[in-house]
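so my prof wants the structure for this chain in the tokens format not the other one, which i didnt know existed until like an hour ago. anyway here's the sequence
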Amino acid sequence: MSRPRHVRNALMTGVFSLAGWVAIVFIFLIFLFTFKETTVVLNVEHMKAFFLANPPVWQPTSDIPKLSLIPIILGTLKATVVGLLFACPVGVAAALFSSEFAPPRLREVIKPTIELLAGIPSVVMGFFALIVLATWLQDTFGFVYRLNAVNAGLALGFALVPIVYTISEDGLAAVPRAHREASYALGATRFQTAWKVVLPAAAPAVFASFVLAFGRAVGETMILLMAGGNAAITSFSLLDPLRTLSATIAAEMGEVVVGSEHYAALFFMGALLFVITFISNTVGQMVIRRMSRRMQGAAS
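here's what i got, hopefully its the right format
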């Protein structure tokens, strides 16, 4: 005997609600565990060592441990900036072409091909950057170091392109057809319509793709561990090796003494990644809501 529809709806609502609360609880437990392990270094002395050490050096296993996070944060920023500078223009351009210019058959090939990049394991992408991309860049441009911020950032960019492309393409496709027809009626060309009408109308979705790509870039591990040189160097040059927050945690957590300052510092890096991602997502959501309201006001 089948249950009435309202009973089934109530059961499904309860299941969805339970799943949501389970996800919230797990996230809270992850936050609690991560921040609990950082309590050893949550004091003024260690904060000075992390951010104000002179010279800024990361040597946690030396006779006199040096725990400056500056070279690691700098490496994270360099890889993230290079990756975003590559992925954002490429992803948006591909989305604009796919949405506005490509024939339907070509669009059916482009979209799954680009999205297929998201299914490639990051360790495979890192291995490609380590063996192929680094050698090609060094032979072509004469880099002193094979593994550097440019190599790591480009490899990271390949992993970010599907995120930027998919969300941007969905946003472009959601722009009402009336916007395009009105632009054509005013004498605009197809390119002018795509660049000056459709793309600005999809700006909230495009910006959302940038925010998500930034979050992925900051937390990426294997690509940057394999392609960046894994050297904690305080350098602003994109041609020097680097080490990132997530790569440092992956490389050192397996051999660290549990409960030591080094152990707590690694967990502090994890907490710092949480904070950076949370702040970027929060600011991104605020900007997206403001852009959406502005676009709706302009449309009305």
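also thought this was worth mentioning. The longest strand covers residues 58-59.
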